[in-house]
Amino acid sequence: MEKNMNDFWKSYDITHAELGPNFRCYPLYGKIHLIELALSLVFIVGMALWYRRSSASARRRILVGVTIALLADEAALLLGMALTGQWNWSYLPLHLCSINVFVCLYNTLTDQNWCKEELYALCIPGAALALLCPSWLDVPSWWTLINLHSISIHALLVLYPVLLVVRGYRPSARRAPQVLAFLFGSALPIYFLNKPLNTNFYFLNNPYGNVITSAFTRLLGEKYYILGFLPAIAVALCLMYLPWVVADARHKKRK
């Protein structure tokens, strides 16, 4: 590992060694963070409007293009860390958002309703929350591979299911059990995998470095912080499904 590595390539480990584990490259909701959020929103809304006005064949090409962009974005981080000698087990694509990259790929290839439901109900709030409360700020500056990758891939992960809804997919609260089965079914093996690899996928190994899990720790203690995910997931699902439940109720009332 080069001592004089350009800041752009530096990982969390190097930043922690040089600047300390509490260093953050910019403050939450400071100027840089707000610009990143604004650009992400403009990108998502602009793409959704373009998609909505496109023909069926153009929509297919756009969806494939977004899928390719997601895969390329994930590959860029892995290659960047590997080629600079910084790769370790924590860069495996086993966080929920990284797994959703492959759910997007599978949906693009097979057009499955369970994929669409999971991406709508979990991927949108998860990726949006990551943008709003980023856990990747312990790098030298905003102009780093990790920060740029994290912003772009989470914006793409919000965009993909938004396009599915724009195309006409109608989420249903009746499919929520499928969503929960996917979430807990994937989290269980990862919980046990975290221990031998000393990783923190799904933030199940320790609460630190993440604003949300740190808040759970303050409320419930380090031993029980994981329990904070249960009401958080319930609230997220309620927020995602409430508009559709209300719309269905109004539709039945008109009849």
Which key phrases capture this entry?
mainly alpha; 9 helices; 0% strand; globular; membrane; CHP02206_TP0381
Q: What is the secondary structure topology, with strand pairs?
A:
Blueprint: H1 12-19, H2 31-53, H3 56-83, H4 96-110, H5 113-132, H6 145-167, H7 176-197, H8 211-220, H9 229-254
Structure commentary:
The chain crosses the membrane at residues 32-50, 62-83, 89-107, 119-137, 143-166, 178-194, 224-247. InterPro entries: CHP02206_TP0381 (IPR011737). This is TIGR02206 family protein. Keywords: Membrane, Transmembrane, Transmembrane helix. The chain is mostly helical. The protein is built from nine helices and no strands. It has helices spanning 12-19, 31-53, 56-83, 96-110, 113-132, 145-167, 176-197, 211-220, 229-254. Helix 3 (56-83) runs antiparallel to helix 4. The termini are far apart. The mean pLDDT is 95.
Count of strand segments: 0
User: How many angstroms separate the termini?
Assistant: 68 Å
Structural class: mainly alpha
What's the overall average pLDDT, rounded? 95
General shape: globular
Helix content: 55-70%
Task: Provide the β-strand percentage band.
Answer: under 5%
Number of helices: 9
Uncertain segments of ≥5 residues (pLDDT<50)?
none
* Main beta sheet strand tally, sense and closure: none
Give the number of domains: 1
* Assembly classification: single chain
* CA gyration radius, whole angstroms: 19 Å
Taken in chain order, the helices and strands follow as HHHHHHHHH
Keywords: Membrane, Transmembrane, Transmembrane helix
Transmembrane segments: 32-50, 62-83, 89-107, 119-137, 143-166, 178-194, 224-247
Protein name: TIGR02206 family protein
Pfam family, one: TMEM164
